[in-house]
């Protein structure tokens, strides 16, 4: 399995994980998929890792989320200790997918879901319940269907090398979700209690967490306003729920493994005074047609620009990072600052924290503009461009179509690409190949 | 009932309408509400109308909506001739409200609804059906609940002086709805066929159309994407539906009958490259919290500003109009142009068309800025400021809180306010006091 004689502790973990995965796959797949996986594993093994994973979080760089401030008239909060469970009958259980490569993104769902209703008229949050995955029943005037009173989070459960299930920095998701609730006139809640309920759901549906490190179980916490009234106003009834979906990779990439982008200044994702920094449904509907246009032009994602200087803000549904040689001749990783225009990504925050701890290159939060990208490309100083997010971890970019011109970015041509190191480091934490405080084990 | 000796044809119609209304109210109300209505009617009678209603539409000013362009892969369209009806059982029928003043906005719904499903996998649009008003059942991953894949229209059915039910310029709503569908990656449809289905629904629930000209039956056509998949992408399944709600006045006003506004440049409703000119749910969720803030400051609506020069774009969910004395010393009605930042209101279009036909003052589409408002107020040249929309027809503004300062607008202090003339003219058309091609009678 390895050509290197000196095997360090991390490699042992990685190989151990692969063994478990191989066994699991042999049992589950009985197909040539395992062969492919083995080949892919061998391929991966060839790359060497330059950077150490620091099994700690440097508080200098991490901003732990602040406790949520609840509205005075919120009413009572829910507690995980009140959780009730109604299990699916054997007849309701769905067959689990036996081919991770055909999972796609968010098409299959597990057997159970978590639901917590909020009714101001009943005093606040109701008791959390886990039920079989079932359709939601709502009044046709429900605010969510008219005024987009809705927000969500994206998390993942990973099957670790030790067979345990892990989730990644859930406190960050909970903090962000509560900020979005506040911005939407929806009720806030205690994130810890929700994560405890979620852990129970994950335990119940644990067999849905793929036994591989090329897939995971996507967690979709959602909060919707369900008041059956047509006034554009806060919703006095809401439903907080979570569904789970085993997922492969989110994005279709070209044969290179990288994505091509449409950068058209005619479209804007967010604006000062808007909600571009909150994970609200309303940020997404307006992007669908633009994404369609990108696809029609043979491009895989949209690079969202802002302002007269064509600042890069996000790519698809990801934060954007650029690795380049700065004016001082130093290698630097740069990403746009949290100005209110971009989503405060948890992968983004983790990458900034990690790479600052590495100290191997400069790390900076500052605006990147398209003219800057063009100039760096002309001078051969742009090394890598990639998106970062929960769904894809990192997603390298190799081409941008900008003002009718194709800009080729050499992201995939670097010998030791930084985006690959970042991906490996993050997935090492997520799949438990190293212990790390960002990983939370589901008992 | 009238102090004037010369009663023209319009007054006859108006009085006839009031008689019908009085009889209907006497039967339905048996309360002191009818007395109040009579007093209000007498009050109204005292004002005189300066401007003639032209019982025609000047094509010079009206832009008839263009036919919708359907996507090639849309599949088959639905036809009103395929409509099926499942009536509510007597047990399902809801009691009708017997007090129009307590209707509020969009809290009560009629007995039936219209539903038309779209499934690309089944070839396109399915057959339209009218059913009892019932809850919608949808998968918890339905795109509408996550990415705000939703849009709507606002229309009204009016009980005319002749007892007939009328709707106002439905072709305009249908054109706008199809534009929003295109922008949202949702399927388009033939507006005429939908209006025919809607007419049938109105006939079935006709007794819900209030017998008064202070209330109406609000029509809420809605289109939502219901694909149960979590990719941010076009929805291959959709539901087009309509619900009906008897409504009084939309806005709470101060004792003066006018509204006060919060104008805070920190919040932006729409921006270039966004979807501010489409009636999509995503434009509304971000406004709820700002509206809450306005209410907390004792103000009734939000005046949405844009840009460094603080352009007035919309007020609450309405278009904005200003009547003032321009630099040439002429009276002028001005409203922001359809720049992509504001909703192309049907009331807005009607007001522009009507007042241009009147030819009594200048009418112009141009930007209005807050500095301009302040200067005009200082010089005593700002006469009236009002919002215009389907829900409220016109809504006069008497105060703006701008940068911490209260600006008092003399809208309610004009002797013959233009906004009142506009309201009367529009409601005369809507309630059939005059025949007009903008009114469509439901047979």
UniProtKB/TrEMBL annotation, chains A, B:
Gene3D superfamilies: 3.30.470.10, D-amino Acid Aminotransferase, subunit A, domain 2. The modification N6-(pyridoxal phosphate)lysine is found at residue 279. SUPFAM superfamilies: D-aminoacid aminotransferase-like PLP-dependent enzymes. It catalyses: L-valine + 2-oxoglutarate = 3-methyl-2-oxobutanoate + L-glutamate; L-isoleucine + 2-oxoglutarate = (S)-3-methyl-2-oxopentanoate + L-glutamate; L-leucine + 2-oxoglutarate = 4-methyl-2-oxopentanoate + L-glutamate. Keywords: Amino-acid biosynthesis, Aminotransferase, Branched-chain amino acid biosynthesis, Pyridoxal phosphate, Transferase. GO terms for cellular component: mitochondrion. Its cofactor is pyridoxal 5'-phosphate. It comes from the Eukaryota. GO terms for biological process: L-isoleucine catabolic process; L-leucine biosynthetic process; L-leucine catabolic process; L-valine biosynthetic process; L-valine catabolic process. The keyword Transferase applies. CDD domains: BCAT_beta_family (cd01557). One of its GO terms (molecular function) is L-leucine-2-oxoglutarate transaminase activity. It holds the Pfam family Aminotran_4. Its EC number is 2.6.1.42. InterPro entries: Aminotrans_IV, Aminotrans_IV_CS, Aminotransferase-like, B_amino_transII, BCAT-like_C, BCAT-like_N, BCAT_family. Belongs to the class-IV pyridoxal-phosphate-dependent aminotransferase family. This is Branched-chain-amino-acid aminotransferase. It comes from Drosophila persimilis.
């Amino acid at each position: 399995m390895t050509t290197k004689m000196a095997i360090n502790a991390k490699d042992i973990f990685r190989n151990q994980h692969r063994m478990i995965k191989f066994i699991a796959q042999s049992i589950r797949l009985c197909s040539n998929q395992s062969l492919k996986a083995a080949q892919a594993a061998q391929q991966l093994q060839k790359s060497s890792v330059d950077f150490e994973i620091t099994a700690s979080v440097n508080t200098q760089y991490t901003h732990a989320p602040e406790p949520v401030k609840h509205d005075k008239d919120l009413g009572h909060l829910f507690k995980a200790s009140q959780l009730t469970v109604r299990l699916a009958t054997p007849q309701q259980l769905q067959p689990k997918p036996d081919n991770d490569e055909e999972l796609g993104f968010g098409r299959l769902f597990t057997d159970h879901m978590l639901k917590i209703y909020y009714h101001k008229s009943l005093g606040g949050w109701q008791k959390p319940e886990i039920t079989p995955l079932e359709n939601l029943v709502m009044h046709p005037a429900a605010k969510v269907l008219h005024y987009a009173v809705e927000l969500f989070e994206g998390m993942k459960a990973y099957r670790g090398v030790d067979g345990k299930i892990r989730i990644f920095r859930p406190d960050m998701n909970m903090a962000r979700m509560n900020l979005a609730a506040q911005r939407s006139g929806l009720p806030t809640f205690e994130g810890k209690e929700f994560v405890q309920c979620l852990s129970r759901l994950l335990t119940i549906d644990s067999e849905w967490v793929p036994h591989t490190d090329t897939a995971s179980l996507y967690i979709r916490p959602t909060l919707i306003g369900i008041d059956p009234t047509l006034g554009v106003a806060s919703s006095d009834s809401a439903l907080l729920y979570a569904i789970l979906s085993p997922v492969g990779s989110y994005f279709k990439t070209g044969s290179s493994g990288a994505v091509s982008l449409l950068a058209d200044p005619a479209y804007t994702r967010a604006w000062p005074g808007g909600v571009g920094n909150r994970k609200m449904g309303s940020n997404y509907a307006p992007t669908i047609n633009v994404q369609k246009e990108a696809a029609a032009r043979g491009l895989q994602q949209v690079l969202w620009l802002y302002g007269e200087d064509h600042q890069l803000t996000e790519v698809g549904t990801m934060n954007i990072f650029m690795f380049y040689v700065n004016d001082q001749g130093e290698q630097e990783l740069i990403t746009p600052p949290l100005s209110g225009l971009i989503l405060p990504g948890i992968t983004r925050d983790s990458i900034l924290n990690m790479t600052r701890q590495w100290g191997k290159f400069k790390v900076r939060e500052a605006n990147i503009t398209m003219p800057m990208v063009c100039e760096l490309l002309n001078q051969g100083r742009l090394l890598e461009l990639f998106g970062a997010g929960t769904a894809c971890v990192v997603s390298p970019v190799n081409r941008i179509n900008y003002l009718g011109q194709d800009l080729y970015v050499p992201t995939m041509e670097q010998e030791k690409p930084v985006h690959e190191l970042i991906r490996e480091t993050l997935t090492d934490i997520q799949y438990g190949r190293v212990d790390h405080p960002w990983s939370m084990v589901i008992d």
